[in-house]
Every structure is written in C-alpha cells, then in structure tokens.
Amino acid sequence: MSTESDIPQNEEEAREKLIDLAAEFYDQFAEGDVPRMTLPTRTKSNIEYDEDKDVWVYGDRTSTRSAKSVSGAEKLLKATYTIDFLAQQLEEDRSSTLRELYYLSESWDLEEAQFNSQDESNDLVEDLEIVSEVTREDFHMRPEESGATLMGPLQIREQTRRGEREIHCQEDVGEGGYQIPNNPDTIEFLDHDADFVLCVETGGMRDRLVENGFDEEYNVIVVHLKGQPARATRRITKRLHDELDLPVVVFTDGDPWSYRIYGSVAYGSIKSAHLSEYLATPEAEFVGIRPADIVEYDLPTDPLGDSDINALESELEDPRFQTEFWREQIELQLDIGKKAEQQALASRGLDFVTDTYLPERLTEMGVI
C-alpha cells in the first residue's frame, strides 16, 4: 500500500479535495445545519453557449441536495460512501471502472447507500467532479475501454506498470494504431513531424486512410473517434492542438448525428459542460461529409427519417451551428431529404477519398 507521500501531486490534491468535501458535511452537522450539496442545475435549459470561449458551460441556476428530504438524504449518503471509496482508492494507488463502482456499492453495509443503476453512480461521479473541481481521471475512475486509437508521426512517452516507455505512433504500433489511454494527460509529447490532426468518425474510414498510407503521405495524425468520442479522445485532440499547434479537422458521416459529433469535439457536449474548456477544441474545422458532397458526387444515400429531420431543424437553432456554412448545408440536406456515410465515397473508387476528396477539400481549407 502506498503512503500519502507516495501519491503524485494531482492525485494527492484530488484525495484532499474529496476529504474536504466530506468534511463540509460533518461541519454542517456540527453547526446544527442540515447537510447539503449545491450543484449547477444539470439540464439542457441551464446550458449556455459561451461565445467568447466557443464552448458549452453551465448557467447560473443551481439545485441543492439536502438531507431535509429522504431522497436528498440518500443522495448525500451515497456521495459520502463514494467519497470514502475514492479516497481509499487513491491512497492505495488503485483504479476502478465506472461499472465496477456500481457493483462495488452492493457490498456497502447500508442498503440505502447502494446504487440502483449505473446511471445513478455515473451521475454521482460527475457531481463530485463539479463540486470538487477534480476530474474523474484524477479520482482513478475510468469508463470501459473506448478502443479509440491514433496513428501518425508522433513520438510519445507514457507511464506503464513496468515504468516509462517511448512509442512512435507509426513505427512502433501495428495497423490498429496507438490506443488512447483513459487519462491522456499522463502522456508526454516528445517529438512529431505532423502537419495536422484528422479526427475520423468510423473505423472503416480510419482503416481506409491508414491502408492507403494517408498518414504518411500527408504527415497527419489520424484520430479514430469511434462514433461519439470519449472524453479521453477529445482531451488528447485538444492537447495535440494546444501544445503542438496542430490544426484539427473532423471527418464524419453526412447526417445530423455526425454533425453533433463534430460539435462535441469543437464546442463540448451538454453532458460534460463542466469540462468544456478541458475537452473542447473550438478551432476544429469540419471537412465532411457535407450535404453538398451528396449532390456533387452523386453519393449513395439513405432517406432522412423523422428523427433526422427533427435533429436538423434543432441544429438550425443550435448556437454551435449558427454560421452561414452550416445554415446552407443543413437547409440543403432538408431540401434533398438524404444522408450519406463516409464509406459512400467508395462508390467512386477505394482510393478516391485519399487521392481526391480529402486532398482537394483540405487544400481549399488551407490545411495542406
């Protein structure tokens, strides 16, 4: 077991903040006050778009978890048990998954402290992030592996159980690339020959780019978003931009849900609004698939469903998409009533995306 002095500074600070939070509950008891915990109201109506920072943030409205009600008392009880577990985990230099926390609670001695669902335990960990201003990664909490990877001319140093190791993310990895760890802040960037970062939604397109040698020909770090990107994926993308001064472009399917994937990379998501400045890359640009591409290249398509139409209409009101480009593209998509996948570009040949589509589009954007 590690002693407290062995805990790295950020982990020691995380543990102290957790203990301070529990101490607040005790002090409230001691002063004769009803224990309580105040949080931003975590609803869509309390999310604001910060135009100066180009990210989503919580508004001014708050809600209070108070022991005045049975429900409130149970939530504070669960918070106290979770704080105790996390503090002990940090002291022992252990880690666990969000799923394990849910099951671990079944061993707690008070039934009222046990979680009823994983959503409940996930939400509580997010609450603790907000009130302690410490990320779950510093609590040593991780989600199930996202499997997201990157491939490109980047040399890094990472911590492993066997100590530090240096990895070149082209030369020292297989075709699958380098798997992004749960906490990318443990990675040190040593050197790179990259000119930009290309975030790709689907595994099929990521594999096509790597197989065709796009990462080598254009000195690009290809980040596989694997659908809606995990926090670790968004964090490493932001670090690549901020620390290495690399442009970031996002390449997704041509549908409203994929535009929101771009939005989460660039501006943050509603669910993690408390971490937008830590995760979002407002300078990220959208490279496609655009509705205009569907028309220009006569791509194979699927018809828009009712949910697609509703989502597109909602995006017309979304602050993240209030530009002339997005208004034109969304209105065009509603007009043609079609959507297309990235792999639809293969209808013009397997090499079309790497020989023509991306080089032309990235040149237009001034990226290459």
Question: What features would you describe in this structure?
Answer:
By secondary structure, this protein is of the alpha/beta class. The protein has 2 domains: 139 residues, Arc Repressor Mutant, subunit A (Orthogonal Bundle); 216 residues, Dna Topoisomerase Vi A Subunit, Chain: A, domain 2. The chain is built from 13 helices and 17 strands. A hairpin with a 2-residue loop joins strand 8 and strand 9. The longest helix is centred in the first third of the chain and has 22 residues. The protein starts with 8 loop residues before the first helix and ends with a helix. Relaxes both positive and negative superturns and exhibits a strong decatenase activity. Belongs to the TOP6A family. Its cofactor is Mg(2+). GO terms for molecular function: ATP binding; DNA binding; DNA topoisomerase type II (double strand cut, ATP-hydrolyzing) activity; magnesium ion binding.
Helix content: 40-55%
Low-pLDDT segments:
1-9
CATH fold annotation of the largest domain: Dna Topoisomerase Vi A Subunit, Chain: A, domain 2
The CATH architecture assignment of the largest domain turns out to be 3-Layer(aba) Sandwich
Question: Class of the largest domain in CATH?
Answer: Alpha Beta
Mass-distribution shape: globular
Total strands: the figure is: 17
Secondary structure tally, helices: 13
Determine Rg (CA atoms, Å): 23 Å
The ordered H/E elements are HEEEEHEHHEEEEEEEHHEHEHHEHEHHEH
Average of the residue pLDDT scores? 87
Strand order of the largest sheet: 10-7-13-12-14-15
Cα-to-Cα separation, first versus last residue:
51 Å
Strand share of the residues?
15-25%
Tally of structural domains: 2
Instruction: Note the main sheet.
Output: 6 strands, mixed
Active site: 103 (o-(5'-phospho-dna)-tyrosine intermediate)
Domain Type II DNA topoisomerase VI subunit A all-beta: 144-193
GO biological process, one term: DNA replication
Organism: Haloarcula limicola
